[in-house]
Amino acid sequence: MEPLSSFFAVSTILLGIGIYGLTTKRNAIRILFSVELIYNAANLNIIAFARLRNPPIVTGQVLVLFTIALAAMEAAVGLSIIILVSRLNTDIDLSKLSKLKG
Amino acid sequence: MTDLLFLAFAAVTIGAAILAIEARDLVYGAAALGIAFLGVAGLFFLLDAAYVGWFQIAVYIGAVVVLILFTVMLVGPKKGETPLGLKRVSLLAAMLVSLLLGMTGALANATAFPGPDSCGSGCALSLFSTSLLKSYGVPLEFMSLVMAAAVIGALALSKTDRGE
């Protein structure tokens, strides 16, 4: 069995990829991809830390179950916002969305 | 055996995640994102969280990726994104930072997190489900409430007004 730190390493790399996508991309769907990747990094971290004790802590798995459900809801609401924006704006470049700017 | 499996799942996850961010076509990006979710689910299986792994496959690949694909097709093909100025440099920097952070995570305290033993009865599904329904029953119900609110909100957002 691999040591748990390698799972943490995978989680950290996923977080890095997600942050890279968040900072450099402008397409709204691409940014949603990045957010989902960051969610997955957090889930992997929680599961690995819950496995640290033997027998493992069940709370971690329950927490990840809730997180996955919340991420699915976040994707549903975010995608409906993207559809709305594309209908109003014909472009989903986030840097051009300045309608609500004061 | 598990080492090989771990390496395979980790490589698939990281490669597909990079492809999801960098693929030129959004459809390919969504497919790569699904493969990355599958890799994470495999890592969950390796960590003896089989139920969470199946849940991840059902929700992420069954729902989220399909939703994203529908949205990509509804929003239509893009004429090409306008890249930010320092794209090369930021790509290099991000790869370097994630590599360094990952190496640090792997090397820092490799002895402090020894490999878990075989899980035994501590990982039984019955323990998990009893805990989910008994200790976390109220949060579970709240979660379904939030889910209903989110679905209604999404429907209300994307509703078209025929009058306008």
Folded structure, characterized:
The complex is a heterodimer of chains A (102) and B (164). With 102 residues, chain A is mainly alpha-helical. Helix content of chain A is 75%, strand content 0%. The longest helix of chain A has 32 residues, at 58-89. Chain B is mostly helical. Chain B has 6 helices and no strands. Chain B has helices at 2-22, 26-46, 50-75, 87-107, 125-134, 137-157.
Properties at a glance:
heterodimer, A: about 100 residues, mainly alpha, Helix Hairpins, elongated, B: about 160 residues, Four Helix Bundle (Hemerythrin (Met), subunit A), flat
Give the topology, please:
The complex is a heterodimer of chains A (102) and B (164).
Chain A: H1 4-24, H2 28-50, H3 58-89
Helix pairs in contact in A: 1-2, 2-3
Chain B: H1 2-22, H2 26-46, H3 50-75, H4 87-107, H5 125-134, H6 137-157
Helix pairs in contact in B: 1-2, 2-3
Low-confidence residue ranges of chain A: none
How far apart the termini of chain B lie comes to 62 Å
- Most extensive contact: A-B, 71 and 91 residues
Oligomer: heterodimer
Short description:
The complex is a heterodimer of chains A (102) and B (164). By secondary structure, chain A is mainly alpha-helical.
